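Exercise 7. Given the encoded structure of a 310-residue chain, write a plausible sequence.
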């Protein structure tokens, strides 16, 4: 298991920093709401952004520091998944005037932060997965230029460890994903990666480029680690994935946008054909087709039949 290193600030120092930062933020928000000058208000707004970032930095560091105290820090971080954060929002007060309000929220933990505090035996595997899926995404939309693929692998941002790692030829996203999850949280969990996890990774790896008609944007390393954390969190908490949609009919104006839960499939057995039932669960295929060929007769039986016909 990875060994933890000494963090820059202690838990006590981080808690103190959060308290002081929140007090400064409250003072800035109050000053902003009472400021009449637009130029001065804009300056205060920038200070608010800086102080929010500082508070959230302290908060995330505190959660990660507590995870580092556990026997298995990565598992602890994947289970926790989030940290308390602060944001601000413009709202109307009782007089109908827009004022700034402080709101408590949560943000997703960034496991790339562990690169500074913990040894990452899985990091180079995640980098190679990012490269592999980038090439797969390119191939899926018809990008097949061999020189482009060679240059992509040559100039792709990889660590020295990832560059030296052996390259296997016939691979799949599912196979590499299981290897990375195994390296992150343990081989016993890597075996629990199912088709829904693979699809979650593939779907989340690309997005449409809104500024171009003929492009898709692939994930970088940080976004790849976020997807891996999502998958590890689902496995560790035995959760399900959800889908969110904004496509609503005209008569559904009062309909609240909700996330619809899926049903995770059981882990697939190695080298076992699988099929999906109506609920989306994966099950083993059974060969129910009856053979039309008759079984060959035993040598003695054929010999006896032959002598009887003479």
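Solution.
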């Amino acid at each position: 298991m990875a060994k933890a290193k000494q963090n820059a600030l202690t838990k006590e120092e981080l808690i103190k920093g959060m308290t002081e930062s929140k007090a400064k933020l409250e003072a800035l928000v109050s000053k902003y709401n009472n400021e009449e000058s637009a130029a001065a208000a804009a300056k205060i707004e920038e200070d608010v952004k800086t102080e929010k970032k500082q508070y959230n930095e302290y908060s995330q560091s505190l959660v990660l520091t507590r995870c580092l105290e556990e026997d298995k820090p990565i598992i602890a971080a994947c289970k926790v998944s989030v940290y308390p954060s602060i944001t601000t929002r413009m709202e109307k007060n009782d007089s109908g005037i827009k004022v700034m309000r402080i709101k408590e929220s949560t943000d997703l933990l960034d496991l790339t932060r562990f690169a500074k505090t913990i040894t990452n035996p899985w990091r180079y595997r995640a980098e190679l997965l990012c490269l592999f899926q980038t090439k797969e995404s390119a191939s899926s939309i018809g990008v097949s230029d061999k020189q482009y693929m060679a240059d992509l692998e040559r100039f792709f941002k990889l660590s020295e460890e990832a560059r030296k790692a052996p390259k296997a030829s016939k691979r799949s996203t599912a196979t590499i994903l299981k290897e990375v999850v195994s390296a992150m949280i343990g081989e016993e969990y890597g075996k629990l990666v199912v088709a829904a996890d693979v699809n979650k990774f593939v779907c989340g790896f690309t997005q449409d480029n809104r500024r171009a008609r003929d492009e898709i944007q692939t994930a970088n390393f940080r976004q790849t680690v976020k997807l891996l954390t999502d998958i590890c969190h689902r496995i560790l908490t035995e959760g399900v994935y959800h889908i969110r949609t904004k496509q609503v009919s005209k008569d559904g104006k009062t309909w609240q946008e909700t996330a619809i839960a899926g049903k995770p499939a059981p882990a697939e057995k190695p080298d076992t054909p699988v099929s999906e039932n109506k609920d989306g669960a994966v099950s083993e295929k059974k060969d129910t087709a009856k053979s039309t060929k008759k079984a060959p007769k035993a040598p003695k039986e054929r010999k006896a039949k032959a002598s009887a016909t003479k």
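Remark. The chain has two domains: 11-116, 123-241. Students should compare their own answers with the one above.
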